[in-house]
Amino acid sequence: MRLTPYQIITPLISAVAVFYAWNLVLRRRKSVLEAGLWTLFWGAISIVALYPNLLSYLSAITGIENQENAVIVTFLGVLFFMVFYLVIRLEELEQKYAKLVRHLALREAGLAEASEGQSKAPMTKHQ
Amino acid sequence: MLIAVIPAFNEAKRIAQVVADARKVTDAVVVVDDGSDDGTAEAAEAGGARVLRHHQNCGAGAATMTGIEAARRLGADAVVTLDADGQHDPRDIPSLLRPIRDGTADIVFSNRFGPFLIMQGKRRNRIPFIRRLFNAIGNVLTLLAAGKWVSDSQSGFKVLGKRALEEIDLRMSGFEFCTEIVREAAARRWRVAEVPTKVIYSEYTMAKGQSFANGVKTALKILLRSFLR
Predict the structure, then answer these.
(1) Which residue among A40, A57, B1, B174 sits deepest, i.e. has the most Cβ atoms within 10 Å of its Cβ?
(2) Which pTM does this prediction carry?
(3) Average per-residue pLDDT in chain A?
(4) Pairing relationship of beta strands B107-111 and B158-160 according to DSSP bridges
(5) Distance, in angstroms, between B195 CA and closest chain A CA?
(6) Does pLDDT of A108 surpass 60?
(7) What is B26-65 written as a DSSP string?
(8) How many CB atoms lie within 10 A of CB A26?
(9) Among B102, B121, B83, which Cα is nearest to B199's?
(10) Best-predicted range by mean pLDDT among B72-86, B127-141, B143-157, B199-213?
(11) Whether pLDDT at B120 is above 50
(12) A29 to chain B, minimum CA–CA distance in Å?
């Protein structure tokens, strides 16, 4: 089987990504479930790279038979990714907001740490 | 010094009694009012608690972490968290504390589903089937997300010893924080113990509990949070 550069590089990148994910599991920064999901994802990328004929089976299952369908499915994939990204960002914002509310509660109860009370803003000429 | 931390949202009817009961077995009680609009903060203060107020409702997880942070700064070497609706019996606090005092655990989870002792005779809590089912699902999700099995991962009744108190850093604001605590315990290799406790279910506490929709939302947040690290 003659391999193209894409068929060499893609599985290598996938292997590094999978290795990194399981390394995080060993360092207890990721759960087994998360690493498993990433393994499936990168595994699928590698398999499609090595066996592109599998895509014909995908065409039969998904109905993607021509370029127009491929564009629509790609667009849906991009849309899904954008929504997912927005949900992640919203979650991050919610966490920052909660942290702010919490710090305010501690400060008003007189329990803020000394370093939190110091202003980090530079003094202006008018102050 | 043992401090009780009670996150509370609209529990003006129950909080004073919960605070009074907790004060009998702890050195101090901290109530975190999570944006209530029914006078919960005032009722808690009247009951003798030190009260912190969230200006906006942020969720049980955020309120718990605020309370834990307050307890740290007040010099606590152990913290017990319990619900504000009177579901947990503060008389169980000494038995929850025992593994911490014995030096065999860094964090102790209560277990509503195991047999508990009353006057040397074992009893089981009468817990509605639907609650058992939801908690079982919660336990499985927690196992998948945290890699650790806890028999009652979703209970808000737990004790943090000195090490857990120093190291804990919760980021989840809602009820999913219960799973996050288990994940922290696993990631930081805390010694974990479980102690059977009594649970007091009433029409009031059942109405206050998580609905199915909330449970699904919590489960999705647990999975979503996994992508933020």
Answers:
(1) B174
(2) 0.74
(3) 78
(4) antiparallel
(5) 26
(6) yes
(7) SSEEEEEEES-SSSHHHHHHHTT-EEEEESS---HHHHHH
(8) 9
(9) B83
(10) B72-86
(11) no
(12) 7
